Amino acid sequence: MICAGNIGGLIDFFSFVAWMFYGGTMVTVVVMRFTEKDLPRPYKVPIVIPLVMIVISAYLVLAPIIENPQVEYFYALLFLLSGLLFYIPFVHFDIRLTIMKKFTRLVQLLLNCAPSESVPG
């Protein structure tokens, strides 16, 4: 299991997940480049750079699994995918729970914070 006693293992599994995110980001750059051509972009990266980064990130994600398969990589992947359990209903389908409104008010009162009045929302 992933535990705090082995710092080297924690670094390995963090790098595994981080390179998955980097690869996903580069895939999005390539997809957006071809599907949303008309969007204004402050700067444009040459297409070769994201493609090279996709290959590098795929290698850095797959190499540890192939070279030294451990069940902890599966745990890290499951932890990453568990975010979909919350994303799909609450963000994609915009489901609101009534208790969340009460919880938000409680946290705002406890932490003395609230959204700015100038921000529409």
Automatic annotation (TrEMBL):
Superkingdom of origin organism: Eukaryota
Membrane-spanning residues: 16-35, 47-67, 73-95
Keywords on record: Membrane, Transmembrane, Transmembrane helix
GO molecular function, one term: L-amino acid transmembrane transporter activity
Gene3D superfamilies, per database record: Amino acid/polyamine transporter I
UniProt-listed PANTHER family: AMINO ACID TRANSPORTER, SOBREMESA, ISOFORM B
Record-given protein name: B(0,+)-type amino acid transporter 1
